[in-house]
Amino acid sequence: MLRTVRKLPMSALKLTSLCSEHACFRKTKIRVLSLTWQNTGQRNYSYSPEDVKSLRSVINPHISRIRNIGIMAHIDAGKTTTTERMLYYSGYIRTLGDVDDGDTVTDFMVQERERGITIQSAAVTFDWKDYRINLIDTPGHVDFTLEVERCLRVLDGAVAVFDASAGVEAQTLTVWRQADKHQIPRICFLNKMDKNRASFTYAVESIKQKLKTKPLLLQLPIGEAKTFRGLVDVVTKEQIIWKPTSDMDDGKHFEQKPLLETDDPNLFQEVQDARNTLIEQVADLDDEFAELVLGEYSENFDLLPADKLQSAIRRVTLAQKAVPVLCGSALKNKGVQPLLDAITMYLPAPNERSYEFLQWYKDDLCALAFKVLHDKCRGPLVFIRVYSGSLKPQSAVYNINKSCTERISRLLLPFADQQIEIPSLMPGNIALTVGLKQSATGDTIVSSKASAVAAAQRAGRDTGRERRSSSDVESLLLAGVEVPEPVFFCTIEPPSMAKQQDLDNALSCLQREDPSLKVKLDPDTGQTILCGMGELHIEIIHDRIKREYGIETYLGPLQIAYRETILNAAQATDVLDKTVGDKRHFVTTELEVRPRLGDKAMTKPAIEYAESVIEVLPKELQGAIENGITNSCIQGPLLGFPVQDIDVTVQSLTMHPDTSHTMVSACVSRCLQKALKKAGIQVLEPLMNLEITVSEDHLSAALADLAQRRGSVQEIQSRQDNRVVVAAVPLAEMMGYSTVLRSLTSGSATFTLELASYQALNSQEQSALLQRKMGLV
Ligand SMILES: Nc1nc2c(ncn2[C@@H]2O[C@H](COP(=O)(O)OP(=O)(O)OP(=O)(O)O)[C@@H](O)[C@H]2O)c(=O)[nH]1
Question: What residues does the Tr-type G domain cover (predicted)?
C-alpha cells in the first residue's frame, strides 16, 4: 500500500526553504526537487506474495548467509540511489524510485522525501542469491554523523560509495575513520561513472592518498562519462555490458561474456595487467595465497582459478589489509548487481567478526538496541542486533543500561516503512521489536538480570577478578557511542503553557531516538533549550515536532555554544550556615582551581583531594562534593557556558554532623564559582574545519570572503577541474555562509563544516561578545 506521503501532491512536496540567513552548518548542495509531480510515474511499493513468502521461508538464514552491511559516504555520493537499485534488482520493489522525485524507499521520513536527503538511517532487509542482506542506509550530512557512528557498531561490513568525479570528499574521510575505529571491513563503489569528469583513475588515486589504504581494483570501467556502458571483472576477465532493452532501461538485463583480445586489444591488455597487479598485491598480503601463486601458478598467472583469487581477496578484505574497488552508475542502472555479488562474496558474515564479550555470554542472549523509532499506534519500535542467543516475541528481556526488565511483544523484519512479522531472531540478525518502552539507542539487552550477573562473573574471572556486585554488570555494556557536544542551541516554546507537557513528551521521545539532541531548562528564564549538532539538525527536530506530534513550536534565534575556561590558578573559601526546621546545616570548604593543559578538551573537571581531606572524608560524601563541582561547571561564571579544561583540588571541608549532602553540594558549587571568577575567565569559541569545493574562476572570491571571516586557509588542493580549500574558521563567522557562497560562486561551490576544536577569543572579541550578551550593543 502506498503511504500517505507518497500520495502527496507536488505542492505539498515542494522544498521548504533551506536557505535561511543563518544556514551555516549545512551543505549548500541540498537538492532542489523537481517541481512537477508525475502522477503517471507513481510507484508500486507493494511487493508480491511470492516475495513475502521467500523472506518468510528463510526467516532465520544460516549465520554464514547473513550480511549486515552499511552504506556510507559523503553527502550526495549516491547511497540512497544505490540502495534503491539493490532493492529493485533483488525484487523487493517493482519500480525504481528517485531521490529527486522524493519517492525512494529508504528515505521514508516526510522531511527526507521533501528535502531529498537521508536523515535517519533506515534498515532494510532483502535477499540476494541465497544471502540475507540487512542493509543500513546512513546519512551523509555532517549534522547526522552520530547516526552513522551508531549504525557502524552493528555492522559487519560496509560499502563506501564515492562520486567518481570527486574522489574522497570531507565526509567520506570522517566516516572512513569511524569505520576504522570499529574495524569494519569495507569495499569501495565508485559511483557516478556516467558523469562528466568522472575518472576511475583519479578516484582510485584519491582513495590511495587520502584514505591511506590499499585499493584492489576488481573491475575496470568500459568507457567513462557519456561513454560509460559497462565493466570488466578483473578476476574472471569477463565483460559485463548493459544494453537498454526496447522499452525499459532499468539495468536488469546485461550481457556477461569473456573479454577477448579481438573485442578490444587495448582493454584486453589493460585487464591482463590489472589482473597480474591484483594477484601480486594479494600475494603480498596473504601468505597462503602467496604460496599458491609462487608454487603452482608462478609461470602463468592466467591459469590461476578465479575462485582461489576470490577467496584470497576475501581474506585480505576481512583482515582489513586492503579494500576491493568496484565501479558503476547507480542512476544509470549499471554496476549494482556485481556490487551485490561482491557484498556477499567479500564482506564478512556475523560469525566471522570477533567480539570479545561473546565469550562471557556463551549461548545466552546478548543484543544491542541501535535505533528507536516512534510509531503512533505501536509505540516505540526498537531496532535490535542479536550477537548471541535468540529472541522470541512475548518474552521478557533485561536492559542492562536501564536496569529494568521489559517485554518484547512482536518481532518484525524491516522493509523501510513496511514490516513482516517473524517468530524468532537468531544470532547475527537484525530486527525491529515492538513492546520495549524503556530501551533507548545504545542499550545492551540480555535475557535476565541473572544472566547479566553470570556474564559479569565470567568476565571478572577472565580479567583475574571476582566480580560479584551487580554494578559490575556495567562492564558488560557494549561499547558506547561517544555523543559529540552540541555547537548550536536555541529556545523552544510551545504555543501555550497548556501544551508544555506535550512538548516535553515529544522532546523526550525524540531524545530516545537521537542522543545527539540535548534538551535543557534555562534556570534563569525557565525556558526549554534545544541543543543540536547544526542548524539543519534543529530545523528537522522543529519540523518533526510539528508533523509527528502536532505541536506548533516557536524557536528562538540560533546561538553558538561557547565554552569557558580559566586563565590562572586560584583558591576560594566558602561557608554555608543555614537552619532548616530544627536542623542546622553548616559547611566550610576551600577549593583550588588550575587550568588543565592537554590536547583533548574535557568538560568534566578532574577532581583531587588534599591528603588531609581524603584521610577523614567519608566515602558517601565524595559523591555530594563531586556533584557540586560538576554541576557548577555546567554554567560558567561569565556567560553561563560549560567550563572546560580545569583541575580542582578540595583543600579542606568541615561540616556540622546534621548537614545534608544537598547542602554540601550547594556550598562546594558556590565556592567553585568564586574560585573560577578569581582565576579569570577565558571564553572559547567553536573552531570549524571548513572544506570548500570551488571552480578556479571563483576561487579568489571565495578566499577573499574567507579572509573577512577570520578564516585561516591551511591548504588548497586540486580536485579534477575544481579547487578544494581546506580552512579553519570560527563558527560564529559562518552565519549566512551558504547564501553568501552561493552568490559569490553562482551556486557552483559546495562546502562542509565540522567541529575541529575550541579556541580562545582575544580580549576585544571577548568583551564585544559580553556586551552583546548583556544587550548593550
Ligand atoms: N550522474 C549520476 N547521478 C547520480 C548517480 N547516483 C546518484 N546520483 C544523483 O546524485 C544525487 C544524490 O543521490 P542520493 O542517492 O540521494 O545520494 P545520497 O548519498 O543518498 O545523499 P544523502 O542521503 O543526502 O547523503 C541525486 O540527484 C541523484 O540522482 C549516478 O550514478 N550518476
Answer: 64-351
Q: What is the 3-state secondary structure (H, E, C) of 289-318?
A: HHHHHHHCCCCCHHHCCHHHHHHHHHHHHH
Do 374 and 86 form a contact (C-beta atoms < 8 A)? no
CB within 8 Å of 287: residues ≥ 6 apart:
none
| Residue 267, number of CB atoms within 10 A of its CB | 17
The model's pLDDT over 542-568, given as tens digits with 9 standing for 90+, comes to 988 998 888 999 998 888 889 999 999
Given a contact cutoff of 8 angstroms between Cβ atoms, the answer to whether 69 and 136 are in contact is yes
Say how many Å lie between the CA of residue 73 and the centre of ligand 1: 11
Task: Assess contact for 452 and 446: CB atoms under 8 A.
Answer: yes
Q: 366-382 pLDDT, tens per residue? A: 998 888 877 767 778 88
All three cell numbers of 117, joined, read 536527503
Counted residue by residue, the chain has a size of: 777
User: What distance in Å separates the CA atoms of residue 185 and residue 376, rounded to the nearest whole number?
Assistant: 37
Q: Annotated binding residue at 243?
A: no
Cα separation, 642 vs 633, in Å, equals 6
User: Residues 331-369: pLDDT tens digits?
Assistant: 999 999 999 999 999 999 998 988 777 778 878 899 988
Q: Which three cell numbers stand for residue 644?
A: 572546560
Answer whether 447 contacts ligand 1 (Cβ < 6 A). Answer: no
How does residue 67 score in pLDDT terms, banded at 50, 70 and 90?
A: very high
Is ligand 1 within 6 A of the CB of residue 667? no
80 is in an annotated binding site: yes
Residue with cell 559487519: 156
Residue 527 confidence (pLDDT) = 85
- Which H helix or E strand runs over 18? none
Q: Which residue type occupies 83? A: T
pLDDT tens digits along 650-669: 999 988 888 899 999 999 99
Whose alpha carbon is nearest atom 7 of ligand 1?
78
- Assess: ipTM above 0.95: yes
| SS3 readout for 42-109 | CCCCCCCHHHHHHHHHCCCCCHHHEEEEEEEECCCCCHHHHHHHHHHHCCCCCCCCCHHHCCCCCCCC
Q: In the predicted model, is pLDDT for residue 286 greater than 70?
A: yes
The predicted structure's pLDDT at residue 327: 96
Ligand 1 lined by 490 (C-beta under 6 Å): no
Bridge partners, 325 (sequence order): 188, 217
Model confidence at 700, in pLDDT bands (50, 70, 90)?
very high
167 is in an annotated binding site: no
The rounded Å distance from CA 55 to ligand 1 centre is 28
Q: How far is the CA of 95 from the centre of ligand 1 (A)?
A: 17
CB-side exposure of 486: number of CA atoms within 13 Å?
Answer: 25
DSSP track, 631-663: HHHHS-TTTSPPB-SEEEEEEEEEE-TT--HHH
